[in-house]
Inverse folding.
C-alpha cells in the first residue's frame, strides 16, 4: 500500500492549513505540488489513485483546520450557537403578541443564514465529491482551474457592484467617526477604541468589536442571498477553485463589503470543513490509515497552526486590501504549472 512519509505529511499539512483560508485553493495546491516535485511524491500523494490514503489524509486534516477556526472565532460561535437555540425556544414558545416565529436578534438571524447557506454545498459534496475527484483530481485540471480561480478573483474586484463599494465606504466612515469620538472621550459602543485612544491598544478587543458590527450587518442579508453566496462553495469541489475566494466574490456581488464577505466566507467554511474532515476520519481509522497515524498527527498539528495564523492575518488584511494579488498569483502559478507539466514532466 502507498504510504506517506513524515516529510510529505508535514509539507501537505502546512499547505492545507494555509491555503484553505487564503483564496488560492488548498486542494489545487495539494494536487499540483506532488506532481511538480515528482518521484515518490507524485506516487504517494495522488488523490485520483484507487485505494490511496492521500485524499482521506488531506480531507482529514480539515478537522484541524476547522478546530483552528473555532478557536479563533470561538466568541463569535458562542454567540451564534446561543442565537440558534434562542430561536428554537422562540419557536416553541413565541412571545405574546408576536408572530408564530420571529427572530429577535442579529445572532439568531445569522445562525439561520449560515445553516441555509451551508445546505447546498453539503448536499453537493455528499453527491458529487467522488465523481469530481476521479474526473478532475489530476494535476493538469488543477492547474486549469487554478487559472480560472484567479480570473474569478480578478473579475470579482474589477466588476464589484456599486452597493458593495458603498458598504465599504460606510464602514470606514463609521470607524473614523468612532475613533474621533473615542479621542474626545465619547467612545459610545466602541470600548476597545476608547482603550486605544487612552494609550492602551488592544487589537483583539478591536477585532471583537468589528466582528459584532459585521455580524449585525450580515444579519440584515436576505435568506435567498445567503443561499446564493453559500452555493458558490460548490465550485470548490473542483481542485483549483478556492472555497473562500469564490464565496467572497459571490458576497461582494450580493452587495456585501469585502470585509463582511470575507467574514461570512470564514464562518461558512467552518461547519463545511469540519463536516468534510469528520466524514473522512473513519477512513483514516480503517485500512486506509494503516501505518500513517503518526503522519496524520504531524500533518494535523501543522495544518491547525497554519490555519490559525492565516485567519488572524486575513481578517485584518481584507479590511483594507483586495483579492487582486491572489488572483494574479493563481494565474501565474496555474500557467507555470501547465508549462512544467507538459514541457518538463
Amino acid at each position: 500500500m502507498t504510504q506517506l512519509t513524515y516529510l510529505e505529511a508535514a509539507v501537505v499539512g502546512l499547505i492545507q492549513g494555509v491555503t484553505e483560508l487564503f483564496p488560492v485553493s488548498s486542494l489545487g495546491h495539494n494536487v499540483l505540488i506532488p506532481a511538480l516535485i515528482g518521484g515518490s511524491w507524485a506516487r504517494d500523494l495522488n488523490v485520483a489513485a484507487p485505494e490511496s490514503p492521500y485524499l482521506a489524509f488531506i480531507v482529514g486534516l480539515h478537522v484541524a483546520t476547522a478546530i483552528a477556526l473555532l478557536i479563533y472565532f470561538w466568541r463569535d460561535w458562542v454567540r451564534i450557537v446561543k442565537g440558534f437555540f434562542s430561536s428554537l425556544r422562540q419557536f416553541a414558545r413565541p412571545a405574546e403578541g408576536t408572530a408564530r416565529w420571529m427572530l429577535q436578534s442579529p445572532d439568531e438571524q445569522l445562525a439561520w443564514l449560515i445553516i441555509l447557506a451551508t445546505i447546498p454545498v453539503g448536499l453537493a459534496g455528499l453527491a458529487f465529491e467522488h465523481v469530481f475527484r476521479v474526473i478532475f483530481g489530476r494535476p493538469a485540471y488543477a492547474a486549469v482551474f487554478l487559472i480560472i480561480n484567479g480570473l474569478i478573483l480578478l473579475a470579482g474586484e474589477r466588476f464589484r457592484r456599486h452597493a458593495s463599494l458603498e458598504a465599504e465606504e460606510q464602514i470606514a466612515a463609521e470607524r473614523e467617526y468612532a475613533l474621533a469620538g473615542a479621542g474626545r472621550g465619547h467612545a459610545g459602543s466602541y470600548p476597545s477604541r476608547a482603550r486605544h485612544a487612552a494609550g492602551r491598544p488592544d487589537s483583539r478587543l478591536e477585532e471583537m468589536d468589528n466582528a459584532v458590527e459585521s455580524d449585525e450587518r450580515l444579519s440584515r442579508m436576505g435568506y435567498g442571498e445567503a443561499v446564493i453566496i453559500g452555493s458558490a462553495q460548490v465550485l470548490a469541489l473542483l481542485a483549483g477553485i478556492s472555497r473562500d475566494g469564490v464565496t467572497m466574490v459571490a458576497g461582494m456581488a450580493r452587495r456585501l463589503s469585502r470585509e463582511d464577505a470575507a467574514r461570512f466566507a470564514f464562518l461558512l467554511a467552518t461547519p463545511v470543513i469540519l463536516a468534510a474532515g469528520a466524514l473522512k476520519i473513519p477512513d483514516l481509522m480503517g485500512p486506509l490509515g494503516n501505518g500513517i497515524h503518526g503522519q496524520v498527527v504531524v500533518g494535523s498539528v501543522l495544518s491547525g497552526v497554519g490555519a490559525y495564523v492565516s485567519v488572524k492575518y486575513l481578517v485584518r488584511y481584507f479590511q483594507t486590501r483586495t483579492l487582486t494579488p491572489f488572483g494574479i498569483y493563481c494565474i501565474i502559478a496555474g500557467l507555470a504549472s501547465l508549462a512544467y507539466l507538459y514541457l518538463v514532466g
Observations:
- Residues 6-343 form one domain.
- The radius of gyration is 21 Å.
- The first helix runs from residue 6 to 19.
- Residues 189-201 have pLDDT under 50 and may be disordered.
